[in-house]
Amino acid sequence: MDPVDASIYIAVAALTASILALAVSVKAYGTASRAIRAAVLLKGSGKEVIVKPRKRYIAFSLVCDKPVDKGVLEDAFTRLYTEYFGKSTLQKASPQLILFLEDKQAGVLRTSHLYRDHTVAVLGALKHVGDSKCVVIPLKTCGSLRKCREAVERKR
């Protein structure tokens, strides 16, 4: 075999290997956690900065066959969140029931912006709170507590 032909085969093999390595790294990046995706590069400086998780407030309404207490609702939500996503995701998202109006059966839940979709999914999947059957209706997602309180107050 001619040395020129051998170098062409070597170059093609190296190109194929680099394309395969690029495909594997893109696949690995796509399956990385949300915390890693929160890292961004500043334009022009080349420094890596971790984005601070922001808070999101989710206003929701409960439609239940019996009135529900705040503590029972928190326990049911936490149990279901842990069942679906695990304790580590629950700790990262840190959802907290900030406001619950028992007379209107509506409230506001605070969570991290990275896990807002997780929280809304668990709210939608919540069917039993204590011994009563319930349906949770997310009303609005806001960046400020004041706007969500207004949405809850306007309910009914």
TrEMBL record:
Might you give the EC number(s) for this enzyme?
Answer: 3.1.26.5
Q: Which UniProt keywords apply?
A: Cytoplasm, Endonuclease, Hydrolase, Membrane, Nuclease, Transmembrane, Transmembrane helix, tRNA processing
Membrane-crossing ranges are 6-26
Q: Name one GO cellular component term.
A: ribonuclease P complex
Signal sequence segment = none
Which catalytic reaction applies to this protein? Endonucleolytic cleavage of RNA, removing 5'-extranucleotides from tRNA precursor
List the GO biological process terms. tRNA 5'-leader removal
Q: Where in the cell is it found?
A: Cytoplasm
Question: Which InterPro entries does the entry mention?
Answer: Pop5/Rpp14/Rnp2-like, Rnp2-like_sf
Q: Name one GO molecular function term.
A: ribonuclease P activity
Q: Which domain of life is it from?
A: Archaea
One of the Pfam families matching this protein, by short name? RNase_P_Rpp14
Q: Where primarily located? A: cytoplasm
What the record says about family reads: Belongs to the eukaryotic/archaeal RNase P protein component 2 family.
Its annotated function is as follows: Part of ribonuclease P, a protein complex that generates mature tRNA molecules by cleaving their 5'-ends.
Q: How would you summarize the oligomeric state and partners of this protein?
A: Consists of a catalytic RNA component and at least 4-5 protein subunits.
Q: What is this protein called?
A: Ribonuclease P protein component 2
- Look up and give the organism this protein is from: Desulfurococcus mucosus (strain ATCC 35584 / DSM 2162 / JCM 9187 / O7/1)
